[in-house]
Fold:
Amino acid sequence: MAKEQTITKRSEDYSEWYLDVIKEADLADYGPVRGSMVIKPNGYAIWENIQKVLNDKFKKSGIENAYFPSLIPEGYLKKEAKHVEGFAPECFVVTHAGGKSLEEPLVVRPTSETIIYEMFSRWVTSYRDLPLLMNQWVNVLRSEMRTRLFLRTSEFLWQEGHTAHATEKEAGERARQMIDEYADFAKEYLAMPVFVGEKTETERFPGAQTTYTIEGMMQDGKALQSGTSHLLDANFTQAFNIKFLDSDGVEKFVRSTSWGVSTRIIGGIIMTHSDDKGLVLPPKIAPIKAVIIPVYTSDEEKKIVIFRVEQIAKELRDQNLEVKVDNRDLRPGPKFFEWEKKGVPIRIEIGPRDVQNNSAIVVRRDNGEKLVVEFDSLAAEVVTLLDRIQVDIYNRALKFREEHTTIVSNYDELKKSVSTGFAIAHWCGNSECEKKINEETKATIRCIPFDQSKSAGKCIYCGKQSAYQVIFARAY
Amino acid sequence: MAKEQTITKRSEDYSEWYLDVIKEADLADYGPVRGSMVIKPNGYAIWENIQKVLNDKFKKSGIENAYFPSLIPEGYLKKEAKHVEGFAPECFVVTHAGGKSLEEPLVVRPTSETIIYEMFSRWVTSYRDLPLLMNQWVNVLRSEMRTRLFLRTSEFLWQEGHTAHATEKEAGERARQMIDEYADFAKEYLAMPVFVGEKTETERFPGAQTTYTIEGMMQDGKALQSGTSHLLDANFTQAFNIKFLDSDGVEKFVRSTSWGVSTRIIGGIIMTHSDDKGLVLPPKIAPIKAVIIPVYTSDEEKKIVIFRVEQIAKELRDQNLEVKVDNRDLRPGPKFFEWEKKGVPIRIEIGPRDVQNNSAIVVRRDNGEKLVVEFDSLAAEVVTLLDRIQVDIYNRALKFREEHTTIVSNYDELKKSVSTGFAIAHWCGNSECEKKINEETKATIRCIPFDQSKSAGKCIYCGKQSAYQVIFARAY
Structure:
């Protein structure tokens, strides 16, 4: 018999398992240049579904899409001191064009604050020009030495939102609103439980006044930063001299925010839900919701079965479900394995006996549960089942996170907890303690979660007074 | 009175008019680096509508979206001799990354054949792996000295489709199918009449065996190449050594195609339909289909009018129409001018008397026609009217093209015709004649149109025997 198990077990080698899942689900491949990635159609279709959902959310909150140039004069990066420090070492630099050496080198955008603010400075003169609420879906480039598909590559796709406001209050509210949108998106669409909170100064976006983040827990207990929103306030707008005449006749600096979600989150989806059989996708984001596999042993059976299968497929499509009929000339077994590996949430098997009984066998990808469903109620049942799977895999991931998150009361407990999951602990706010903990445990502070009682306590490292708890974890 | 006319007349200066329309409709702006363009939300929304339509077409014909890296090793470009000759002089070259000098320079994609074929060569081994039918929506960079918003910029957005096939026949059919899709798209959605045909050898894509094109006529009589499809056959696959084992057991070279439409086509939409008042958009691609402007002179009137306006807006939105209600505190006059400039196909004016009469004034952007329409039938009437406008502006553009296209029988006629439009003439097939005509008239052969009787005749330049007619025009 052919070897069906092509995926390394998670318990054997989690890293290998991750790459095997991507390979077997045909999501992505390494490109020829070190650190580059090709997103194959199966992976890109997930990204397109993410785009649809986020675009709808953005549009509802007044954000419009635009496109800004990918090449940024090197000098722009230098205008904001922390920004250049953070990004210059990662930049790809264009020094020649049209066969000639350029007067000023251009960097390929690692992020677009600087070029966007250059344009904002031309567009904004009065409070009437504000707010500006823009987003773009683009590629960004950051040179990386150690790469891993989706999680860390020298080029990735993302959306980057950029807004400009008349007041710090309004900008602050927007930055907060967008991280809440991301958290809602992660929960409702990706079935991914996330901690939502603020980054410490050490972990902030270079040039931000405040950085908010959503942090998911992967099945190996590590954290994945899955979306961030920054209140840049006047840091960049002062650097780019973006002033406006306010309604009170006073000239003021514009306040800004930026926020983004990238293709990295696809890595997060994989590592939150998938299993040793391959990819598991949240139904709401799965490009194919159900696959129908006709089962037959003779041409006569085939004719009867296929006829019924096409009818069923039409009924499902009439419910706006993306359905795949796999009528390739292969045995059912290998088909089952293939679609399991590819993470299609529901498999429907229809054979001659099923046609006779007016029912199909319906199999859930997430937990293997088999149901016999009558043809008459199949379309409605699939719709219900997809919703149920969406909820179930969220709850499963939440349970996993809860089992792997410990409120620790001493440093030894912290050390132990971060080797298998998250540790919640008091911290004094001092970067030195944060740094020491990182050196000694490899864990970083993922965030100061919003959702906490903010009771007083003692820093897990130095024992000094602490006003709030933070989440420690090793991270991707 | 304020000066309302901010747009140069076409008769005065066509180039200035074009840029004024873009500025006043707020579609795009020049970026800080020479030749770069910012696509502003009003312009990008047009592109998003183009994407939706083309994505649907592609999907129906089996094409899947993917993403390939933007940085290409310089050596890849050199593998296909004509390709490197055509593109190397325009490339932006990355020589540094991560603070270090690169071993091999990378070019930012001017087009992605080479990197895609490198990946195809890894994926294809058997006839079972074929066809590969992929597309990507990306930015591409080509250094340009003389730039013009949308029409020619150093960076632009496009879709580039790339397919790989087992036979030349299949590849040839795909290349032809895609240019037909583009022609249909231009006609049905952009209301843009195009000539569809084959490029001469001189005008072919570097590395292609055959290039098909759609060519539109702008209002100054010049041609705009608006989409191309290339049969590359085995030119690239030999260079990249992409072989497959065919079902007959013989190893063969894969045959390939590529095809693309870019943001350039937005320039084509502008120059096909717009007028001295500003932008005119085909309804099917207009981001806003109708704008409703409440008209009132007192707060009491305002209350009555706004109430009705919101009702009407809801009825229109229930028909899936994107509708804008402009209830800013401005006089109606400036609002009319603004939405005219921005190309919204239908303006609906509702004042107190209209509310009393249960009717609205409906104004067509394209020809200024005013209608009084009862509220009860307004939604249905707007739907019908949008369809009518779509057809009317196509017919108007077609009439313009017919009036400016001449079948010429001698060289003097050709010279005269290409100063105001297209000239159709016999050509012997010799590149020398083509070159001479170009030098003497600034016109190029835009295409050998498919739609011709292929009667025998004499070359317009040398008088030698000719088997078919071609279209000469000056071009953007």
About this structure: Residues 290-385 of chain B form a domain with the Rossmann fold fold (CATH 3.40.50.800). Chain B has three domains: 14-273, 290-385, 405-473. Residues 375-403 of chain B form the longest helix (29 residues).
